[in-house]
Amino acid sequence: MQRWTSQALLLPPRASWQRADLEFEGVEHDGASFVLHVFLNNDSADEATPRTAAEGYAGYLTVFAHGDCWGDAGHCDITEPVSAFDRRPPQPLIPFNATLEVSEALDALPEGTQQFTVTTLAFNKADDSAGVLRFSQLTLLTYA
Amino acid sequence: MTVTARPAANAAPVRLKIRKNIATLSPAELAAFRQAVKQALELNDKRGFEYFAGWHGVPLGWCQHHDLLFLPWHRAYLYWLELALQSQVAGVTLPWWDWSTSRTIPAAYTGADNVLAAGAAIKVFGAEPKAGWPTHTARDPGQEIPQVPGPPYAKEWAYAMQASNYTDFSQRIWTVHDTLHVWVGGTMAQVDWAAYDPLFFAHHANIDRAWRIWQSAHPGANPPADVLGQSLQTDPAMTVRTTLDVRQLGYEYAGAESTVPGSS
Predict the structure, then answer these.
(1) What is the CATH superfamily name and number for domain B9-126+135-253?
(2) What is the model's pTM?
(3) Which residue of A19, A33, A47 to mutate against B (max B Cβ within 10 Å)?
(4) CB contact under 8 A, B192 and A66
(5) B5-42 pLDDT, tens per residue?
(6) Distances (CA, A) of B192 to A92, B48, B58
Protein backbone atom coordinates (compact mmCIF):
# COMPACT_ATOMS: atom_id res chain seq x y z
CA MET A 1 0.00 0.00 0.00
CA GLN A 2 1.16 3.50 -0.83
CA ARG A 3 -0.04 6.38 1.38
CA TRP A 4 0.10 10.00 0.24
CA THR A 5 -1.19 13.07 2.04
CA SER A 6 -1.67 16.43 0.37
CA GLN A 7 -0.98 19.89 1.63
CA ALA A 8 -4.08 21.71 2.84
CA LEU A 9 -6.64 22.66 0.20
CA LEU A 10 -8.80 25.73 0.77
CA LEU A 11 -12.53 25.06 1.11
CA PRO A 12 -14.88 27.87 0.01
CA PRO A 13 -17.89 28.66 2.22
CA ARG A 14 -20.57 26.01 1.87
CA ALA A 15 -23.15 28.46 0.60
CA SER A 16 -21.00 29.22 -2.44
CA TRP A 17 -21.11 25.79 -4.11
CA GLN A 18 -23.48 22.99 -5.07
CA ARG A 19 -20.99 20.33 -6.08
CA ALA A 20 -17.34 19.70 -5.34
CA ASP A 21 -14.88 17.52 -7.23
CA LEU A 22 -11.33 16.47 -6.48
CA GLU A 23 -9.37 16.42 -9.70
CA PHE A 24 -6.22 14.29 -9.77
CA GLU A 25 -4.36 15.82 -12.67
CA GLY A 26 -1.84 14.05 -14.84
CA VAL A 27 -2.44 10.53 -13.53
CA GLU A 28 0.07 8.13 -15.03
CA HIS A 29 -1.23 4.76 -16.19
CA ASP A 30 1.79 3.06 -17.68
CA GLY A 31 2.22 0.59 -14.82
CA ALA A 32 -0.02 -1.93 -13.08
CA SER A 33 -3.72 -1.25 -12.56
CA PHE A 34 -4.55 0.12 -9.13
CA VAL A 35 -7.25 1.39 -6.82
CA LEU A 36 -7.05 4.37 -4.48
CA HIS A 37 -9.23 5.08 -1.49
CA VAL A 38 -9.54 8.73 -0.52
CA PHE A 39 -9.92 10.24 2.95
CA LEU A 40 -10.39 13.90 3.92
CA ASN A 41 -8.73 15.36 7.01
CA ASN A 42 -7.53 11.99 8.17
CA ASP A 43 -3.77 11.94 7.70
CA SER A 44 -3.36 8.74 9.66
CA ALA A 45 -5.85 6.71 7.64
CA ASP A 46 -4.57 3.26 6.82
CA GLU A 47 -5.88 -0.01 5.48
CA ALA A 48 -7.72 -0.74 8.71
CA THR A 49 -9.53 2.61 8.81
CA PRO A 50 -13.28 2.16 8.30
CA ARG A 51 -14.44 3.67 5.02
CA THR A 52 -17.09 5.83 6.67
CA ALA A 53 -18.02 9.48 6.65
CA ALA A 54 -16.99 9.71 10.29
CA GLU A 55 -13.45 8.80 9.25
CA GLY A 56 -13.46 11.28 6.37
CA TYR A 57 -13.88 8.65 3.69
CA ALA A 58 -14.68 10.28 0.34
CA GLY A 59 -14.73 7.36 -2.09
CA TYR A 60 -12.48 5.45 -4.45
CA LEU A 61 -11.07 5.56 -7.95
CA THR A 62 -9.78 2.61 -9.93
CA VAL A 63 -7.32 2.98 -12.80
CA PHE A 64 -7.26 0.38 -15.57
CA ALA A 65 -3.63 0.65 -16.63
CA HIS A 66 -1.43 -0.75 -19.33
CA GLY A 67 0.98 -2.96 -17.40
CA ASP A 68 4.54 -3.66 -18.40
CA CYS A 69 5.85 -2.35 -21.70
CA TRP A 70 5.87 -5.21 -24.23
CA GLY A 71 7.45 -3.39 -27.17
CA ASP A 72 10.97 -2.62 -28.22
CA ALA A 73 13.04 0.15 -26.68
CA GLY A 74 11.16 3.45 -26.77
CA HIS A 75 7.77 1.85 -27.40
CA CYS A 76 6.19 3.38 -24.32
CA ASP A 77 7.92 6.74 -24.47
CA ILE A 78 5.42 9.57 -24.61
CA THR A 79 6.33 11.39 -27.79
CA GLU A 80 5.27 14.76 -29.15
CA PRO A 81 3.77 15.19 -32.64
CA VAL A 82 6.57 15.31 -35.19
CA SER A 83 4.95 18.21 -37.04
CA ALA A 84 1.86 20.41 -37.11
CA PHE A 85 0.47 18.00 -39.73
CA ASP A 86 0.85 14.94 -37.51
CA ARG A 87 -2.72 13.61 -37.37
CA ARG A 88 -1.94 10.37 -35.62
CA PRO A 89 -3.95 9.65 -32.44
CA PRO A 90 -2.36 10.77 -29.19
CA GLN A 91 0.11 8.42 -27.55
CA PRO A 92 -2.02 6.07 -25.38
CA LEU A 93 0.07 6.59 -22.26
CA ILE A 94 -0.45 10.34 -22.00
CA PRO A 95 -1.50 11.01 -18.39
CA PHE A 96 -5.17 11.80 -17.78
CA ASN A 97 -7.26 13.53 -15.14
CA ALA A 98 -9.30 11.45 -12.71
CA THR A 99 -12.26 13.04 -10.94
CA LEU A 100 -13.91 12.11 -7.67
CA GLU A 101 -17.00 13.97 -6.51
CA VAL A 102 -16.59 14.77 -2.82
CA SER A 103 -19.64 16.94 -2.08
CA GLU A 104 -21.05 14.58 0.56
CA ALA A 105 -17.66 13.97 2.13
CA LEU A 106 -17.07 17.71 2.49
CA ASP A 107 -20.51 18.11 4.01
CA ALA A 108 -19.52 15.54 6.62
CA LEU A 109 -16.59 17.67 7.83
CA PRO A 110 -17.23 19.88 10.87
CA GLU A 111 -19.19 23.01 10.09
CA GLY A 112 -16.93 25.96 9.38
CA THR A 113 -14.04 23.87 8.06
CA GLN A 114 -11.95 26.18 5.89
CA GLN A 115 -9.25 23.82 4.73
CA PHE A 116 -8.65 20.12 4.54
CA THR A 117 -6.07 17.56 3.51
CA VAL A 118 -6.50 14.59 1.22
CA THR A 119 -4.98 11.23 2.06
CA THR A 120 -4.90 8.51 -0.57
CA LEU A 121 -4.25 4.83 0.02
CA ALA A 122 -3.26 3.20 -3.26
CA PHE A 123 -3.12 -0.54 -3.86
CA ASN A 124 -1.89 -2.54 -6.83
CA LYS A 125 -1.43 -6.24 -7.48
CA ALA A 126 2.11 -6.27 -6.20
CA ASP A 127 1.13 -4.35 -3.04
CA ASP A 128 3.91 -1.83 -3.73
CA SER A 129 4.55 0.92 -1.19
CA ALA A 130 5.67 3.51 -3.76
CA GLY A 131 5.03 4.43 -7.36
CA VAL A 132 1.47 3.14 -7.46
CA LEU A 133 -0.29 6.50 -7.76
CA ARG A 134 1.73 9.05 -9.73
CA PHE A 135 0.13 12.35 -10.68
CA SER A 136 1.12 15.98 -11.15
CA GLN A 137 -1.27 17.93 -8.91
CA LEU A 138 -4.54 17.86 -7.04
CA THR A 139 -7.27 20.46 -7.41
CA LEU A 140 -10.54 21.05 -5.59
CA LEU A 141 -13.15 22.29 -8.04
CA THR A 142 -16.42 23.66 -6.70
CA TYR A 143 -19.46 24.49 -8.79
CA ALA A 144 -22.10 27.06 -7.91
CA MET B 1 -37.27 2.72 -29.47
CA THR B 2 -37.89 0.87 -32.69
CA VAL B 3 -37.14 -2.58 -34.07
CA THR B 4 -36.35 -1.37 -37.59
CA ALA B 5 -34.25 1.32 -39.23
CA ARG B 6 -33.46 2.45 -42.76
CA PRO B 7 -29.80 1.75 -43.60
CA ALA B 8 -30.00 4.48 -46.28
CA ALA B 9 -32.43 7.32 -46.96
CA ASN B 10 -34.36 5.57 -49.73
CA ALA B 11 -33.94 2.01 -48.48
CA ALA B 12 -36.67 -0.13 -47.02
CA PRO B 13 -36.65 -0.52 -43.24
CA VAL B 14 -34.50 -3.39 -42.01
CA ARG B 15 -35.01 -5.21 -38.76
CA LEU B 16 -32.39 -4.34 -36.14
CA LYS B 17 -30.45 -7.04 -34.34
CA ILE B 18 -30.97 -7.05 -30.59
CA ARG B 19 -28.14 -7.35 -28.10
CA LYS B 20 -29.42 -9.24 -25.08
CA ASN B 21 -28.58 -9.73 -21.43
CA ILE B 22 -26.24 -12.73 -21.13
CA ALA B 23 -28.30 -13.91 -18.16
CA THR B 24 -31.41 -14.29 -20.29
CA LEU B 25 -30.05 -15.88 -23.48
CA SER B 26 -31.85 -19.07 -24.41
CA PRO B 27 -29.71 -22.24 -24.58
CA ALA B 28 -29.86 -22.06 -28.38
CA GLU B 29 -28.79 -18.39 -28.43
CA LEU B 30 -25.88 -19.06 -26.09
CA ALA B 31 -24.80 -22.09 -28.13
CA ALA B 32 -24.87 -20.02 -31.32
CA PHE B 33 -22.78 -17.28 -29.74
CA ARG B 34 -20.24 -19.76 -28.41
CA GLN B 35 -20.06 -21.40 -31.83
CA ALA B 36 -19.36 -18.03 -33.48
CA VAL B 37 -16.56 -17.26 -31.01
CA LYS B 38 -15.13 -20.77 -31.40
CA GLN B 39 -15.02 -20.50 -35.17
CA ALA B 40 -13.52 -17.00 -35.00
CA LEU B 41 -10.82 -18.27 -32.62
CA GLU B 42 -9.85 -20.92 -35.16
CA LEU B 43 -9.21 -18.34 -37.90
CA ASN B 44 -5.66 -17.07 -38.16
CA ASP B 45 -6.47 -14.17 -40.46
CA LYS B 46 -8.32 -10.87 -40.38
CA ARG B 47 -11.64 -12.62 -39.79
CA GLY B 48 -10.37 -14.15 -36.56
CA PHE B 49 -11.06 -13.29 -32.93
CA GLU B 50 -7.39 -12.74 -32.17
CA TYR B 51 -7.00 -10.23 -34.97
CA PHE B 52 -9.73 -8.16 -33.31
CA ALA B 53 -8.31 -8.74 -29.81
CA GLY B 54 -5.08 -7.26 -31.10
CA TRP B 55 -6.73 -3.95 -31.94
CA HIS B 56 -7.16 -3.08 -28.28
CA GLY B 57 -3.68 -3.74 -26.99
CA VAL B 58 -0.91 -6.03 -28.15
CA PRO B 59 0.09 -5.67 -30.92
CA LEU B 60 -1.82 -2.72 -32.41
CA GLY B 61 -2.82 -0.65 -29.38
CA TRP B 62 -5.62 1.31 -31.04
CA CYS B 63 -7.94 1.65 -28.03
CA GLN B 64 -8.91 4.99 -26.51
CA HIS B 65 -9.27 5.35 -22.77
CA HIS B 66 -9.79 8.17 -20.29
CA ASP B 67 -10.77 10.63 -22.99
CA LEU B 68 -13.75 11.72 -25.08
CA LEU B 69 -13.13 9.00 -27.66
CA PHE B 70 -13.51 6.19 -25.12
CA LEU B 71 -17.19 5.51 -25.86
CA PRO B 72 -17.14 6.02 -29.65
CA TRP B 73 -13.99 3.94 -30.14
CA HIS B 74 -15.34 0.99 -28.19
CA ARG B 75 -18.73 1.22 -29.94
CA ALA B 76 -16.96 0.99 -33.29
CA TYR B 77 -14.80 -1.87 -31.98
CA LEU B 78 -17.82 -3.93 -30.91
CA TYR B 79 -19.57 -3.16 -34.20
CA TRP B 80 -16.74 -4.58 -36.31
CA LEU B 81 -16.26 -7.64 -34.09
CA GLU B 82 -19.99 -8.37 -34.05
CA LEU B 83 -20.07 -8.34 -37.85
CA ALA B 84 -17.15 -10.76 -37.90
CA LEU B 85 -19.02 -13.09 -35.55
CA GLN B 86 -22.17 -12.82 -37.66
CA SER B 87 -20.08 -13.90 -40.64
CA GLN B 88 -19.44 -17.10 -38.73
CA VAL B 89 -22.93 -17.72 -37.36
CA ALA B 90 -25.68 -15.62 -38.87
CA GLY B 91 -27.68 -13.48 -36.51
CA VAL B 92 -25.57 -13.71 -33.37
CA THR B 93 -25.13 -10.54 -31.33
CA LEU B 94 -22.83 -9.56 -28.50
CA PRO B 95 -24.50 -10.21 -25.14
CA TRP B 96 -24.11 -7.77 -22.26
CA TRP B 97 -23.18 -8.40 -18.65
CA ASP B 98 -25.22 -6.20 -16.36
CA TRP B 99 -22.75 -5.68 -13.52
CA SER B 100 -24.96 -2.94 -12.12
CA THR B 101 -27.14 -5.74 -10.72
CA SER B 102 -24.96 -8.86 -10.95
CA ARG B 103 -22.42 -9.81 -8.26
CA THR B 104 -20.39 -12.32 -10.20
CA ILE B 105 -18.97 -13.19 -13.58
CA PRO B 106 -21.83 -14.65 -15.64
CA ALA B 107 -22.08 -18.44 -15.54
CA ALA B 108 -22.01 -18.46 -19.34
CA TYR B 109 -18.37 -17.35 -19.14
CA THR B 110 -17.20 -19.95 -16.62
CA GLY B 111 -16.86 -23.70 -16.41
CA ALA B 112 -14.99 -26.43 -18.20
CA ASP B 113 -15.03 -26.97 -21.95
CA ASN B 114 -16.30 -23.44 -22.53
CA VAL B 115 -14.82 -21.21 -25.22
CA LEU B 116 -15.91 -18.14 -23.22
CA ALA B 117 -14.12 -19.18 -20.02
CA ALA B 118 -10.64 -18.14 -18.85
CA GLY B 119 -7.67 -20.39 -19.48
CA ALA B 120 -7.58 -20.27 -23.27
CA ALA B 121 -4.27 -19.90 -25.07
CA ILE B 122 -3.37 -16.37 -26.18
CA LYS B 123 -2.11 -16.23 -29.76
CA VAL B 124 -1.15 -12.77 -30.95
CA PHE B 125 -2.09 -12.30 -34.59
CA GLY B 126 0.86 -11.56 -36.81
CA ALA B 127 3.47 -11.48 -34.05
CA GLU B 128 5.92 -13.89 -32.51
CA PRO B 129 5.55 -14.21 -28.72
CA LYS B 130 7.99 -12.19 -26.63
CA ALA B 131 9.42 -12.98 -23.22
CA GLY B 132 6.96 -12.03 -20.51
CA TRP B 133 3.85 -12.19 -22.63
CA PRO B 134 0.98 -14.10 -21.03
CA THR B 135 0.35 -17.46 -22.65
CA HIS B 136 -3.21 -18.01 -21.41
CA THR B 137 -6.11 -15.87 -20.29
CA ALA B 138 -6.72 -15.71 -16.55
CA ARG B 139 -9.14 -14.14 -14.07
CA ASP B 140 -8.96 -13.65 -10.33
CA PRO B 141 -12.15 -11.79 -9.44
CA GLY B 142 -11.97 -9.81 -6.23
CA GLN B 143 -8.68 -11.39 -5.20
CA GLU B 144 -5.91 -9.77 -7.23
CA ILE B 145 -6.38 -6.43 -5.45
CA PRO B 146 -8.80 -7.14 -2.59
CA GLN B 147 -9.28 -3.42 -1.95
CA VAL B 148 -11.14 -2.98 -5.25
CA PRO B 149 -14.88 -2.85 -4.51
CA GLY B 150 -16.79 -5.54 -6.35
CA PRO B 151 -20.07 -5.50 -8.24
CA PRO B 152 -22.92 -4.79 -8.32
CA TYR B 153 -22.12 -1.21 -9.27
CA ALA B 154 -25.66 0.12 -9.00
CA LYS B 155 -24.60 3.36 -7.31
CA GLU B 156 -21.87 4.03 -9.87
CA TRP B 157 -24.27 3.28 -12.74
CA ALA B 158 -26.89 5.65 -11.32
CA TYR B 159 -24.28 8.36 -10.82
CA ALA B 160 -23.25 8.11 -14.47
CA MET B 161 -26.86 8.25 -15.61
CA GLN B 162 -27.35 11.49 -13.65
CA ALA B 163 -24.77 13.26 -15.81
CA SER B 164 -26.24 16.16 -17.74
CA ASN B 165 -23.64 16.33 -20.52
CA TYR B 166 -21.56 13.93 -22.59
CA THR B 167 -18.24 14.84 -21.01
CA ASP B 168 -19.46 14.09 -17.48
CA PHE B 169 -21.23 10.90 -18.58
CA SER B 170 -18.16 9.64 -20.40
CA GLN B 171 -15.92 10.27 -17.41
CA ARG B 172 -18.32 8.68 -14.90
CA ILE B 173 -18.91 5.57 -17.00
CA TRP B 174 -15.22 5.06 -17.77
CA THR B 175 -14.54 5.25 -14.03
CA VAL B 176 -16.81 2.30 -13.23
CA HIS B 177 -15.55 0.60 -16.40
CA ASP B 178 -12.04 0.76 -14.99
CA THR B 179 -13.21 -0.66 -11.68
CA LEU B 180 -14.85 -3.71 -13.27
CA HIS B 181 -11.75 -4.45 -15.34
CA VAL B 182 -9.46 -4.32 -12.32
CA TRP B 183 -11.88 -6.27 -10.11
CA VAL B 184 -11.96 -9.17 -12.61
CA GLY B 185 -8.16 -9.20 -12.48
CA GLY B 186 -5.77 -11.26 -14.58
CA THR B 187 -5.99 -10.63 -18.31
CA MET B 188 -8.89 -8.22 -17.95
CA ALA B 189 -6.90 -5.95 -15.62
CA GLN B 190 -4.29 -5.04 -18.23
CA VAL B 191 -5.18 -2.70 -21.08
CA ASP B 192 -2.74 -4.40 -23.41
CA TRP B 193 -4.24 -7.89 -22.98
CA ALA B 194 -7.82 -7.45 -21.80
CA ALA B 195 -9.51 -8.03 -25.15
CA TYR B 196 -8.09 -11.55 -25.42
CA ASP B 197 -10.66 -12.54 -22.77
CA PRO B 198 -14.13 -12.92 -24.36
CA LEU B 199 -15.56 -11.50 -21.13
CA PHE B 200 -14.17 -8.14 -22.26
CA PHE B 201 -16.89 -7.85 -24.91
CA ALA B 202 -19.74 -8.63 -22.50
CA HIS B 203 -18.39 -5.89 -20.22
CA HIS B 204 -18.09 -3.40 -23.06
CA ALA B 205 -21.49 -4.27 -24.49
CA ASN B 206 -22.84 -3.13 -21.12
CA ILE B 207 -20.81 0.07 -21.29
CA ASP B 208 -22.18 0.65 -24.79
CA ARG B 209 -25.67 -0.09 -23.52
CA ALA B 210 -25.20 2.47 -20.78
CA TRP B 211 -24.30 5.08 -23.38
CA ARG B 212 -27.36 4.09 -25.46
CA ILE B 213 -29.66 4.45 -22.44
CA TRP B 214 -28.11 7.79 -21.51
CA GLN B 215 -28.42 8.99 -25.11
CA SER B 216 -32.12 8.12 -25.11
CA ALA B 217 -32.60 10.28 -22.05
CA HIS B 218 -30.48 13.12 -23.44
CA PRO B 219 -31.31 13.53 -27.13
CA GLY B 220 -28.64 15.49 -28.97
CA ALA B 221 -26.18 15.40 -26.09
CA ASN B 222 -23.28 14.47 -28.31
CA PRO B 223 -19.51 14.65 -27.88
CA PRO B 224 -18.11 18.14 -28.48
CA ALA B 225 -18.39 19.34 -32.07
CA ASP B 226 -14.66 19.27 -32.70
CA VAL B 227 -14.63 15.55 -31.85
CA LEU B 228 -17.45 14.44 -34.16
CA GLY B 229 -15.39 14.43 -37.33
CA GLN B 230 -12.44 12.62 -35.80
CA SER B 231 -11.51 9.31 -37.33
CA LEU B 232 -11.42 6.33 -34.97
CA GLN B 233 -8.55 3.95 -35.46
CA THR B 234 -10.28 0.72 -36.46
CA ASP B 235 -10.10 -1.44 -39.58
CA PRO B 236 -11.77 0.09 -41.50
CA ALA B 237 -11.81 3.48 -39.83
CA MET B 238 -15.03 5.10 -38.65
CA THR B 239 -15.76 8.66 -37.53
CA VAL B 240 -17.13 9.53 -34.13
CA ARG B 241 -20.27 10.89 -35.81
CA THR B 242 -20.98 7.49 -37.38
CA THR B 243 -21.09 5.86 -33.96
CA LEU B 244 -23.73 8.13 -32.47
CA ASP B 245 -26.84 6.22 -33.54
CA VAL B 246 -26.82 2.50 -32.82
CA ARG B 247 -29.82 2.01 -35.12
CA GLN B 248 -27.69 3.12 -38.04
CA LEU B 249 -25.19 0.48 -36.98
CA GLY B 250 -27.95 -2.11 -37.15
CA TYR B 251 -28.52 -3.01 -33.54
CA GLU B 252 -30.43 -2.07 -30.44
CA TYR B 253 -30.54 -3.15 -26.81
CA ALA B 254 -33.54 -4.76 -25.18
CA GLY B 255 -34.40 -6.36 -21.90
CA ALA B 256 -36.91 -8.70 -23.50
CA GLU B 257 -38.25 -9.36 -26.97
CA SER B 258 -41.47 -11.08 -27.99
CA THR B 259 -42.77 -11.16 -31.57
CA VAL B 260 -45.81 -12.90 -33.07
CA PRO B 261 -46.85 -13.24 -36.73
CA GLY B 262 -48.96 -10.55 -38.33
CA SER B 263 -52.24 -11.00 -40.25
CA SER B 264 -50.87 -11.40 -43.77
Answers:
(1) Di-copper center containing domain from catechol oxidase (1.10.1280.10)
(2) 0.95
(3) A33
(4) yes
(5) 888 888 888 889 999 999 999 999 999 999 999 999 99
(6) 11, 18, 5
